[in-house]
Write a structure and sequence with these properties.
By secondary structure, the protein is α/β, with parallel strands linked by helices. It is built from 6 helices and 14 strands. It is globular, with a radius of gyration of 18 Å.
């Protein structure tokens, strides 16, 4: 883990979704250092298996066992509407409490449709909060405005656009982007950082950037 990582991935509030529970040291460190853990209802057993207890359990509660309901009855937050998934419900719960600096774990893996849906939610979340999504191989940063991101030489970097008419400019990449309009997600994937920052300039957006952890 490189120097800025601990600050970058440290948040007082971590949301744990019901995808693949993290095993990599970086997301686990973020989880263990959190002041509060907001758990989507289906992830309660996974969190307990890791030796942790949720601060809150949020969702429609259809996946919470009878035993967990009894243990955490004072921490359950039932949101019955079905227009959004449990990750979005947990996010809204956090915002309602003024917690808008968020790290999301367990939101990928297991089912590809859930992964795609959660990544799409991530760019919507970025309009209202500072949010990162960590996996076992790296992290996703949603951008609503142009930004300079920390990187390291040789770091795999992928850029995805949710606006096919928005021109994207990038510096600090092996294959520079010079006004490219990303109509397909593969067009700016599998790039590589050339230095300690990657600068992305665009209008409209949003963008979603994936970067891998550094192996030390």
């Amino acid at each position: 883990m490189y120097a800025f990582a601990m600050k970058l991935f440290t948040s007082k509030t971590v949301i744990v979704a019901n995808g693949q529970f993290p095993t990599h040291a970086t997301p686990l460190a973020a989880l263990h250092s959190a002041a509060r853990v907001v758990c989507c209802d289906g992830a309660v057993d996974k969190l307990e298996a890791a030796g942790l207890t949720p601060t809150w359990v949020v969702g429609d509660l259809d996946s919470v066992s009878i035993e967990a309901r009894a243990r955490y009855h004072e921490r359950l937050v039932c949101v019955r509407e079905q227009e959004t998934n449990d990750l979005a419900k947990a996010f809204r719960f956090c915002l309602s409490h003024g917690w808008n600096d968020l790290v999301i774990l367990g939101a990928t893996g297991l089912r590809e449709d859930h992964t795609l849906a959660n990544l799409s939610w991530l760019v919507d979340f970025a309009c209202e909060a500072d949010v990162l999504l960590l996996t076992d191989s790296g992290w996703f940063t949603p951008l609503t405005v142009s930004a300079r991101l920390p990187a390291f030489v040789g770091q795999p970097v992928s850029v995805f656009s949710f606006d096919p008419v928005s021109a994207v400019h990038a510096e600090g990449l092996k294959f520079p982007l010079d006004g490219l309009r990303l109509a397909r997600w593969w067009q700016a994937a599998l790039n590589e950082a050339c230095g300690d920052t990657v600068s992305l300039v665009f209008k409209n957006g949003p963008l979603l950037v994936f970067q891998t952890y550094q192996v030390v």
